[in-house]
Amino acid sequence: FVLLQIGAALRPCFAPDAPPGLTASGCALLSRYLLAITTSEGGVEVDPVAVRKLLGLLTKMLTPISLAQLEYPALSDAAATVVRTAALRAAAALQQAVATEPTARAELATQLKSALPALRTCWMGLLRDWCALSAASGRAAKGYAPHLYTTAAAVASREHIEHAWPAAFDAVLSLIGTDAWREERPTGSHARDMTARIGAAAAAADNALTSEDPREVSVLSPINPAPESEDFDLLIGLCVHTLAAADARCAAADDSAIEAPLGQEPPIIDACGEEATLCVASLPKLLHPDFLTPVALPPVSMLLILRLLFRISQSRGAPPAMRVAIASLTAHLAPKLGQYTKAGTEDARQILVALQLLAAAPAMSAIPALRDPSAL
């Protein structure tokens, strides 16, 4: 009876005429409530009917078509982005719980399974939007056709997409290697057709951006499923971009420490940020055996990742959580890079050296003299 009451109380949040703030709050509340009632821990019995009805309120709005149709003509374009990102974050929290506690969340996993391919596609759309919004090059962002925000509302939408992308990133990574990662993707000529459609959408957005009145710019690109390789490239690129930004902040923190007055110990700050630590902790999932090959991830990219990780690990700006994540990632990678190190090429030699340095990073951080063995 209580479940029916709560379901009835939540339904108005998802009505077509509900204000965006109410719908966004309803998404978050629904997610938290589902997490509370879908664990079988302690012998609690999960009601599959209640889970199906409540979950349906969320998943019915989380398809590429449904997200695109969300609009609030009387309000700013950013209002729809608020609802889209809130719904995607809510669903991501559910998937994260399923991935973390598969046994205790078995009923939720069963109910969520059929929606995962569409959710994956929508989460990837959000991540593409974040990559465009965070790009340093204004021109790169200008030629991009967004999925979840209109160009005219990019500034107002950025905060909401920035808050949502870590949850979407984590949810997508939990799918790698599963059927939900592989299903409902284009192959062969379908993949080529999609690339052409995406290019046409980007061109349309670029033309719209030349409009004299920015209020007229309201082009949304359809969210289509991409080939596995394209999604992997986006995810690894997002990690590298985030780590490169953390590396730059760490270098600045180290420079500040050098410039500190003699005899004064400079404060130790976290120059990496939670997002960079999340990326490092997530790389073992992302570097699945399907992608840990020179074809999927070229040697030059692997070398860049290893060098970024080493530099960050040696910085004063790297907090303990980052160092632990890097050490764990190194242990994961070391026995799996045979395809990169056995080739006998210059790239293979450099990757082996970079991996050896990364493995020795904890000792080199504790004993700085090890960085220059001739000084011992």
From TrEMBL:
**GO CC terms in record:** cytosol; endocytic vesicle; Golgi apparatus; membrane
A biological process from GO: endocytosis
List the Pfam families: Laa1_Sip1_HTR5
The record, for InterPro entries, names:
Laa1/Sip1/HEATR5, Laa1/Sip1/HEATR5-like_HEAT
Query: In which domain of life is the source organism classified?
Result: Eukaryota
- What protein am I looking at? Uncharacterized protein
